[in-house]
Amino acid sequence: MIFSVIIPVCNGEAFIEECVRSAAEQASDFVGLESCREDGNKTCHQDVFEVIICENGSSDNTPKLCDDLAERYDCVTTIHRGRIGLFRARQEGIKEAKGDWIVSLDGDDELAPGALKTLYDTIEQYRNSDNELDLILYDAAVLGQPDKKLRNYGFTPKMILGDGVKGPFLEQLCVDDSINAMWIKCVKRSMAAFDDIDLFLNYGEDLYQTAKYLDEAKGILYLDKILYYYRKDSTSLSSTYSEIYLEDEKNTYKQLDKYARKWFGDKFTQTIDERKALTCTIAVSKLIYSDLSLSDKKYKLEKLLKDEFYREYSECPLPDWAPEEARFVKELQSAKNCKNALISHSIKHGMKKRIKRWLGNGR
What is the CATH T-level fold of the domain 3-230, as seen in this structure? Predict the structure, then answer.
């Protein structure tokens, strides 16, 4: 088996069928294929890749849909693991994987047509290279805009960078979030698994894993091609609030801090502190724009403002690439009485939402 496509999903009934179909139906790209695997055995088109869905604690119709998809496609397997968090769900899929390479796919996104064949051709092209290849990065696009890259990287394409020269990737991880996502990576299974698999992590798990992969990779290659379609979250920062968000991000930043110091000493400490400030602002944004009651917002905001991590980093400046919405909330955070300023804005935002909903209902 060459590839294992890992799909962690929880309450993903809206898009899981489209997601799985985008991977499973790429089997037709490999008809007639016969090549040697890394262990020397032959590979035919039927066993080039598998798709593993790790359903974790859904309360909607996702579990049944996943089982139905496993029945529909020979290459698809579904495992059910309960509410274990996104990080562990992805890792549980990796534990079950048989492929030499791990491809990550989120349950509401899609693989671009021909993505697996492109990765296969790339691996074959560099199979006998002097430099070992164990991590491939590639481009993504927003679903519905297949020719427009989500990011523009400055990496040199189609060149394997190993120890001593993989600095551009390490620096990028420290500077911003542009290469955090697991879904722009194809990773050798031999280095994809974590020892701390019991860690519950829903937020920041991409960065947590990416830091380890970049550190351990003997050879990294950037493939200047769009192989992934990302479904843009229409809610932006205004998603549901969870106190777990900041706790998860604390664990993630411990990981990044550890590797950043190993790679560069204190060179990027200030830059990473600015990213932590943005995380604090996002936590506030999630809370004030949530659908929680006003009393809950007040209680949770007071608790958030007293958090040790928040108190240490919230006053740092935001990174230059922070979105405008975050910059606006940052101004409210900096007000003399920030709690009142944030709650007042939350009330106004809630009123606007209710009026918009009222007008939308034709009343």
Answer: Spore Coat Polysaccharide Biosynthesis Protein SpsA; Chain A (3.90.550)
Q: What is the pLDDT of residue 128?
A: 84
145 in Cβ contact with 230 (< 8 Å): no
Nearest-CA neighbor of 97 among 45, 46, 49, 28?
A: 49
Sequence-separated (6 or more) residues with CB below 8 Å from residue 183: 104, 105, 106, 109, 140, 228, 230
How far is the C-alpha of 122 from the C-alpha of 116, rounded, in Å?
Answer: 10
Residue 197 has φ and ψ, to the nearest 5°, of -70, -20
* pLDDT > 90 in the chain, percent: 82
Beta-carbon count within 10 A of 250 CB: 15
What one-letter code names the amino acid at 251? N
Sorted by where each begins, the domain ranges of the chain are 3-230, 244-360
| Distance from chain centroid for Cα 173 | 13
pLDDT tens-digit series, residues 287-296: 999 999 999 9
Residue 225 and residue 181 in contact, taking contact as beta carbons nearer than 8 Å: no
Which one, of 327, 271, 283, 326, lies nearest residue 307 by Cα?
283
Cα torsion 302, 303, 309, 311: sign = positive
Write the CA distances from 123 to 14, 194, 220, 294, integer angstroms: 33, 24, 12, 54
Element (H, E) at 23: helix 16-24
Which of the pair, 138 or 47, is modelled with greater confidence?
A: 138
Token pair listed for 325: 């919405």
Do strands 135-142 and 110-111 pair parallel, antiparallel, or not at all (unpaired)? unpaired
Lowest model confidence (mean pLDDT) among 99-103, 163-167, 225-229, 290-294: 163-167
Answer yes or no: is pLDDT of 360 > 80.
no
From its phi and psi, is residue 198 left (phi > 0), alpha (psi between -120 and 50) or beta? Answer: alpha
